[in-house]
Design goal:
Elements: E1 28-30, H1 42-62, E2 67-73, E3 82-85, H2 96-115, E4 118-124, E5 126-128, H3 136-145, E6 150-152, E7 159-160, E8 162-164, H4 165-178, E9 184-188, E10 194-195, H5 196-203, E11 207-209, E12 219-222
């Protein structure tokens, strides 16, 4: 919709790293990734996403981009159970996705010193909104529309930090202007918790509780004090 907006569609997995953009780029936002980890073998998922990541960084280098915003994930905290997860909490790798995100964070930190660029790593919590199919709210709404019963693992009292996509976009936009010389790692979250059962009730869907023992944290809420 913006007249000055230029959209270039390329496949980062196969894009040549010397790809040149004929405009001065003030800040790059790295968020390209293959998300379908359920239907791809773990090692293939990891290697293909690392290739996309390194191609993105090479493009930044080739175009002399000195500010980089990288979208990471709260998955790097592993199964940490807390109502106030802080950016300096210990990294805990518990699956291929958290391993990948932690590795990419480390590469950003290391390369920023070698290539002299500034970075801001954003650790995203649960992001929901239109067409975000990886979020439980999207799946619950879809099941409601199809008149399907939702089966909730455990007692439904698991608490998660949910943030709307519009708030994420606004945060990225503001950080892009504020990011100067100092490097940052920031949680991007609401700082509030919502019970899964309350989400289902709000949607008005039919549900059944399994009451099975669930191998996941009871409470996962991030602190957004550094972001604010």
């Amino acid at each position: 919709k913006l007249k000055k907006f230029i959209f270039i569609k390329k496949d980062l997995e196969f894009l040549k790293s010397n790809f040149k953009i004929n405009k001065k780029i003030d800040c790059a936002i790295i968020l390209g990734a293959i998300m379908d980890f359920k239907n791809i073998p773990p090692l293939e998922f990891y290697s293909r996403n690392m290739l996309i990541f390194f191609n993105s960084l090479k493009i930044c280098k080739h175009n002399s981009i000195k500010k980089i915003i990288y979208l990471s994930s709260a998955a790097v905290y592993g199964n940490l159970e807390s109502s106030c997860i802080l950016e300096n909490d210990k990294i805990q790798i518990n699956n291929i996705y958290s391993d990948m995100k932690a590795s990419q964070e480390n590469e950003i930190k290391k390369l920023s010193k070698l290539r002299n660029f500034n970075y801001c790593i954003l650790r995203l919590f649960q992001i929901y909104g239109k067409n975000i199919s990886t979020n439980i709210i999207y799946r619950f709404i879809k099941m409601k529309k199809n008149n399907l019963e939702i089966k909730i693992n455990g007692d439904g009292n698991q608490i998660r930090d949910e943030l709307h996509i519009n708030d994420l976009v606004n945060a990225i936009y503001k950080i892009g202007f504020k990011l100067k010389k100092k490097n940052h790692i920031l949680n991007v979250c609401s700082g509030k918790g919502t019970r899964i059962i309350d989400i289902v009730n709000k949607i008005g869907a039919k549900f059944e509780l399994t009451y099975k023992k669930v191998n996941e944290p009871k409470v996962v809420i991030g602190s957004n004090k550094k972001l604010s």
